[in-house]
Structures are given as C-alpha cells and as structure tokens.
Design a protein that fits this description.
CATH topology of the largest domain: D-Maltodextrin-Binding Protein, domain 2
Number of helices: 11
Number of strands: 10
Strand content: 15-25%
Order of helices and strands: HEHEHEHEHEHEHEHEEHHEH
Structural class: alpha/beta
Number of domains: 2
Helix content: 40-55%
CATH class of the largest domain: Alpha Beta
CATH architecture of the largest domain: 3-Layer(aba) Sandwich
C-alpha cells in the first residue's frame, strides 16, 4: 500500500492550523482549571509576612476555586531556594510562589547564582502590598535624630554599626543606600532574622537598625526603641508621628518591601487572570484588610502588568545599589 506523504504546502497548512488551535486549547484548559490541588510555595520559614499572606491566600483560594491550596515552606538563600523550585515547576497553574523584594529583585545582584531569572522565569500574578522599613535606635541612646546619625557617621575615624535581618535583605540594602546617600560611615552587622537583630540593638551590641516596620513597632510602642524615620515617601499608619526619611533631608529616599505572587513562566494567561481575580477579591475582604493593615502593610491588589513594571524598576535599582556599595556574596 502506498503511503501519502504531504507536500510542503500541506505541511505548512497543518502547522498553521495547529498554531491557530493552540490558544483555543490553552483557553479550554483554563476553563477546566483547576482540577486538582495547587501548591503555594512560601520561600521563607513559617511566621513571617510572606507566610501569613500565603496562608491567607491558601484559605481564600481553597474556598473560591474548590480545590485544596497547600502551603509549602522552603526557606533558604533569602527566598531563592523556594523560588528556584517554583521556577522549575510545570507551567500549568498548579504551582505558585510568594515573591518578595529579596527573592524577586535583590538576590540576583548579590548571589553568584540563584537558579532563576527573577523576571524571565516567572509570570506575575498580583502585588499583595508594600510596607516600609524603619530606622531604629535605642530609646535611651545618644542618637536622637537622623542628623545625629549622619553627623556621628561622618566624624573622622568613626563608624556606626548597623544591623539587619541578614546579608542581602531589604534591611541591609536600606542601610547601604542610606550610607551612599548621606556619606555616613556605616558598618553592617548581619543577624539571622529580625529577632536577634532587635535584641542586639537593645543590648547595645549595635548602634542602629533598619528593620521591617512590622517587627519594630511593638518595641517602639513599648518605649524600648526610638524610630527616627520610615522609608516610605509618606508617613506610615503604624507610626503616624514618625517622618519619612525623604522629608528629613533625603529627598526621594524610598525603600518599600513588597509582597507578591508569581507563577512559573509560560503559565497560560487565562489561568493567570483567574488567579488574579480570585486573589484580588480575597484582598478586598474586610477581615483580610484589617489583618494586613495590622502588620503595617499598605494593601495593593495591583495586577500583573503593574507588578512586572515595579519588578523591573526594583531589579535595576538594587543592582545599582549593590554595585556601588560592593554588596556581593561569594
């Protein structure tokens, strides 16, 4: 029996038909998605803001999508370890990751290899919210104002020890940016998290700490620490009487830690849209708003395009700061 071998024109028509059918096939898949459990990777240890958000989304999506959404904590390398696993996952909508300023903007400039491209390896879903860092000193210490810090840091032969929650964290880079902007001589002392860094400040082991506003507020309210400035352009509702650094001689100084959600690159657009719609609805619930505001977070809900634009700006900004401050891990 003679087999019919299609000519070149027939093959081209078949390829064109397949290409035309592909978007329809992806849309059809999105109509039936999800059909099984979704994994939500939190690339940090339990208990932090990223974990709190992940569990909030897990509960909300389980209810709205009618499938289990399971949180998996994979800490390490400033959020890069869990993010790398998400980047390698199938782009079928069944893996999500909670991304932050560290995992999806800063780390690529300070680690020799993180196993993914923070932009090209992911599809942005939603910007959950932002929160500033706060500049902290001991309540009974000699540093009372931002000018005191700058003046002390500029004295010949002097240096101010400033702490952070770890090398490459947004708190670390905030201190590096502050030093670059003011010319103050600051020596970085990294700790394994906010808890140890706060204890070191209160014990006098360090002079200054840039920390997440959520972690610092309780100690300020208790009178143990003094807040000299926040890193948002406007005052924070959590510390309404504390002026932004941008209003204390550092025009334009802004550092906002942000929380967002990403999916592996190539995840179908209809799936991304469906995720965004459900997550945005969750963020609008009064109890969720109240909980996140209590953490010091400015709830956003911005969509994929806005999140991608923010991410591109942030990657460029922190690459420049890391280069100028010579922040690099071997």
């Amino acid at each position: 029996m003679t087999r019919h071998i299609p000519g070149r024109r027939a093959l081209m028509l078949q390829a064109a038909a397949a290409a035309a059918a592909w978007p329809f096939a992806k849309a059809l898949a999105a109509d039936t998605w999800p059909e099984r459990a979704i994994t939500y990777i939190v690339p940090f240890a339990p208990g932090g803001a990223t974990d709190i958000l992940g569990r909030m989304y897990s509960q909300a999506l389980t209810q709205s999508l009618k499938v289990p959404v399971v949180v998996e904590n994979i800490g390490g390398t400033g959020g890069s370890l869990g993010s790398a696993k998400a980047a390698r996952a199938k782009h079928d909508g069944y893996t999500l990751v909670g991304g932050t300023i560290s995992s999806h903007a800063i780390n690529v400039s300070i680690y020799p290899s993180i196993g993914y491209d923070p932009i090209a390896s992911f599809e942005p879903v939603i910007l959950s919210g932002t929160l500033p860092n706060v500049m902290l000193v001991r309540a009974n210490g000699p540093l009372k104002t931002v000018d005191d810090v700058i003046t002390a840091g500029k004295k010949p032969g002097s240096s101010i020890n400033f702490g952070s929650s770890g090398v490459g964290s947004s708190q670390h880079l905030t201190g590096a940016l502050f030093a670059l902007e003011t010319g103050a001589n600051l020596t970085h002392v990294p700790y394994k998290g906010s808890g140890p860094a706060l204890q070191a400040l209160m014990s006098g082991e360090i002079d200054l700490l840039f920390d997440n506003i959520t972690a610092g507020v309780p100690f300020v309210n208790a009178g143990r620490l003094r807040a000299l400035g926040v890193t948002s352009l406007e005052a924070s509702a959590s510390l309404p009487d504390v002026k932004p650094l941008a209003q204390q001689g550092l025009a334009g100084f802004e550092v906002l830690s942000w929380q967002a959600v990403f999916a592996p690159a190539g995840t179908p657009r209809p799936v991304i849209d469906k995720l965004y719609q459900n997550m945005a609805a969750a963020l609008k619930k009064p109890d969720v708003q109240e909980k996140l505001t209590a953490l010091g977070m400015d709830v956003s809900g911005a969509g994929p395009q806005e999140l991608r634009a923010l991410q591109r700006r942030e990657v460029g900004k922190w690459a420049e700061v890391a280069r100028k401050a010579n922040v690099k891990l071997d």
